[in-house]
Amino acid sequence: MPNRLAGESSPYLRQHAANAVEWRAWNDDALSEARMEDKPVFLSIGYSSCHWCHVMAHESFEDEATAALLNERFVCIKVDREERPDLDALYMRAVTMMTGRGGWPLTVFLTPSLKPFYGGTYFPKDARFGMPAFKDILVAVSDAYSRRRGEIEESADNLFRVVARSFEPEPGQWLAGREAASMALKSLLAEFDEEEGGFGHGPKFPQPPLLWFLLDEAARLHEPDIAKKVFFTLRKMARGGVRDQIGGGFHRYSVDGMWRVPHFEKMLYDNAQLASLYFRAHLLCGDGEFQRVGEEVLRDIERCLKSPDGGYSAALDADSDGEEGRFYLWTPSEIEEALGEAEAKVVCPFLGLAAGHSGDLESCTPRQALDWAEGAEMARTSEPAFRLRMENDLERLRRKREARVYPGVDTNVLTDWNALAATTFFDAFMATGENSYREKGEALLDFIWNRLWDGKLLFHVWDGSAAKVPGFLADYAYLAKAHWSAFEATGTFRRLVEMETLLNAAIERFHAGDGRFYSTGEPQSTKGDLLVRIADAEDGVLPSPLGVIAHVLWNLERVAGGEGTKNLLEAVLRCQAGALSQRPGSMVSLAAIAAAITSPTVDVVVAAPNEGEGNAFLKVARGLSEPRLLVLPLLADRVTEAEAQRFPMFRGRRKEIGASAYVCAGGRCFEPAETPARMEALLLDALAADE
Fold first, then answer.
1. Count of H helices and E strands in the chain?
2. Which of 340, 400, 402, 658 is the most buried (most CB within 10 A)?
3. Whether pLDDT at 265 is above 60
């Protein structure tokens, strides 16, 4: 008989609707029940594509004996971390403080007042992996709560105070100029894996924000060796098992340090950011392989994650047909069956699928084991011919793979992750000039604006029929950034206005008035929301929302001027001075802004009657891809004279006839450039100057 999750719209919650556990969703009724029955809360947080969440569900939550213990002694609540990242952040912080590690499924025991007193991640049904049996933990926790109630509540109160303080700004001295960025760079380079690329030695996540920072620093410092480290990493990832060699997209992370064996779930946010990074790398070094990877990632997003109503779904499951990664794994015999014996003899070595494989994940996960020249030599053909041959073979394998049991799709359409995807489409357009990317970006922004913005409030989730969950700082920040990218790419003035609207709404909802931005709105415990406001400025697999807000503020200040924006930006950096001085390598977005606001800027406004007449200028300027350089189109058919007057950067520059480029550097403006070549010369001279 289904439990109370059967009527929920979250795919993750519905996955647990048939469990023997009497689950509740996180809501007033469930929290009131815990208080009325005076029972501890068993809180389980996960997401629909999480492999170990499935394992724990099958082992324990579907087990009648385990479920009976849970139902008798606890009020059991399930939370989808993608719907409620605020709850996840709060209780993940608590568990990490208690145990020194975190992850999903997140397992937390709470007092009826919602304060954590014990927790962990995955617990096995039976004792193994050096961990006790889950049923033994349930009995021990329940007995301790009954017999030592006062001690447990005192401990929970103390822990909660420490957790709450951990979200407060850290005192510290302001780092002037480039100091924070220099410290962040030093920290990242110390962690860089010279043998395999990326950071650390496994498990290894792509961490696009950190790689992007390295590219920016390489350009700012004129240090090509730093950029080469990023290019090296991108090639390693693109050729490794962490990338779906058949479909084109990326899995969430590699369980080893060599990008060989992935954790097979696919996340929209990873693929969106990585595609942007590959397009950026292509612009910087001209390697067509990077552009090809970016394009293949976007095609994979379209195939796997496009939802029927216009947005993009959150993720693909790691499991299919009851097995981790089954959808993506290949044996040599399966390749031969799909392509024939002769073709398999070429494809298997190229994909690292050797005869006599052991059947484990490593031997069955395709990777690009040979570079293109080696593959061509093996096949005794030219490299262009070999590339075409492999493209055809991989497409045949992809079509063959479609007949397999498909991984589950997390159909949540999340504002923040979709905003990242929209930004990527505009990045792809500016890198390639392909209009279809711009059209997809515009359509996605329209979808978000029409479905998830009600005129005053931005929502976090579109569940296929309704918007729900008031938005978080990440939703506002990433969407504001996407609108900025849309204006950069298209010159459509409406996007700049919408960006301002989102930025002002974010300031009103999340700014505490002292430079502190919270990640969540006001806590409303009577409505089952957080007891404490979350604030986090660190970058990782996702960019810090606060760092993104700071970048949007910086861009707006450059375009619009005004003391208000500048003062707010400086207040944000002062508020984070302590954390920046102590952990600069984990706060690279803010470290970059701290350096940028004290560095000479280079701006170019390409004024033209329309995009067609401005394209030659825009293509040249965008191709420079330098972080200090701001390239903005001012197109007369998309910006009226009255609109242009709103922003100092555009005043007096709108042109209805002919095209010109207005270049300014370090507070000095040059004569308008009437040709792309003249504009390029001015920009190169300005960018070559020392900061």
1. 28, 19
2. 400
3. yes
| Lowest model confidence (mean pLDDT) among 168-172, 282-286, 325-329 | 168-172
**From the centroid of its chain, how far is CA 451?**
21
Same fold, 11-166 and 602-688: yes
Share of the chain above pLDDT 90, in %: 88
Structure-token pair, residue 94 = 């608590």
Q: Which residue has the higher pLDDT, 217 or 599?
A: 217
Query: What's the pLDDT tens digit per position in 527-579?
Result: 445 678 899 899 999 999 999 999 999 999 999 988 889 899 999 999 999 99
- Look at residue 526 in the predicted model and tell me its pLDDT: 36
- CA 261 to chain centroid, in Å, comes to 21
Residue 220 neighbours by CB distance under 10 Å: 21
> How would you write 187-212 as a 3-class SS string?
HHHHHECCCCCCECCCCECCCHHHHH
Is residue 49 within 8 Å of residue 408, measured between CB atoms? Answer: yes
Give the start-to-end residue ranges of the domains of the chain.
11-166, 179-319+410-596, 328-403, 602-688
Sheet with 467-470, strands from edge to edge, namely 413-414, 459-462, 467-470
pLDDT confidence of residue 527:
44
| CATH T-level topology, domain 602-688 | Glutaredoxin (3.40.30)
Helix H or strand E encompassing 278: helix 268-285
Residue 384 has pLDDT above 80, yes or no: yes
Q: Mean of the per-residue pLDDT values for the chain? A: 93
User: What is the structure's pLDDT at 689?
Assistant: 78
Which residue, 612, 618, 607, 602, is CA-closest to 653?
Answer: 607
Summarize pLDDT for 439-480 with one digit per residue, the tens.
999 999 999 999 999 999 999 999 999 999 999 999 999 999
Q: Shortest CA distance to 422 belongs to which of 491, 495, 505?
A: 495
CB 420 within 8 A of CB 272: yes
Q: Which two tokens stand for residue 300?
A: 């994979």
Tell me how crowded residue 96 is: count the other CB atoms within 10 A of its CB: 16
CATH code reported for the domain at 179-319+410-596: 1.50.10.10
- The verdict on pTM exceeding 0.70 is yes
d(CA 40, CA 72): 11
486 CB-contact burial (10 Å; exposed 0-12 / middle 13-18 / buried 19+): buried
d(CA 270, CA 273): 5
Q: Distance (Å, rounded) from C-alpha 109 to C-alpha 111?
A: 7
Closest by CA position to 668, among listed 689, 647, 654: 689
Residue 319, helix vs strand vs coil: strand
CATH topology of domain 11-166: Glutaredoxin (3.40.30)
Angle at 183 between CA 178 and CA 189, to 5 degrees: 125
